[in-house]
Amino acid sequence: MRISTKAAANIASTALFVSAAAVTLGATTADAATTCNQTSTATKQDVSTLGVTMNYSKTVQSASIGVGTTVEYTIVVGTTGIGNPYVNQIVDYPPAGFGAPTSAKVTAFHVGGGQVTENVTPTVSGAGWAVNSTGWFVNSGNPVTLVIDYTLPMNTVASDVTSGGISVGGTAGVGTSLPGLTSCFGARINNPGEAITGSANAGGFGSGTNGLSSTGSVSDQIIQIIKTSLS
């Protein structure tokens, strides 16, 4: 059976893809042994909080994110008390090298409306990006939540990416600076075989299980490529 030049080229490229995939999967497994936490939490209870505990958290949406796609951080400011601290500023500190946020929204309690989500426009605040208000109400059942999006720069190498922390301004002891409230994820580069097989995610190469999702596998992709090339 003769194999066309095009088929031979596709099969050769597939071999390169398999080799690269093996390297990528091995690197992912090795990285799993290191500490890269998607979520950090912190509390504050001192004389300024009047016996009430303030709670803070920061989370990134995925453990693995591809370059050029969205990185989304969720920051939550809450309290265990029934008092009424007001948050008037949240500053997010993204990883070094990130550009301006692409979008941001705040969910907070509004009298007569309950929890309401609104788009907000971040402004530069030192090395971070701030969202401001005349006062977002906080109590034990109504935290303030900021969701802020960035684009993962295309020149990011495949490695762990750790953000900076946050700072919060407001009344009744809610204000604080938390540089250690970070979030971490693994950045993914594009697979060499994507030019042949299409999007790695669409072909079953996801970000959850060492580069493979339940919808596909390396062997499935190879078999399909060879069948197509020989047809």
UniProtKB/TrEMBL annotation:
According to the UniProt entry, where is the signal peptide? 1-32
UniProt keyword Signal, yes or no: yes
Task: Supply the name of the protein.
Answer: DUF11 domain-containing protein
Annotated keywords: Signal
Q: Which organism is it from?
A: Nocardia stercoris
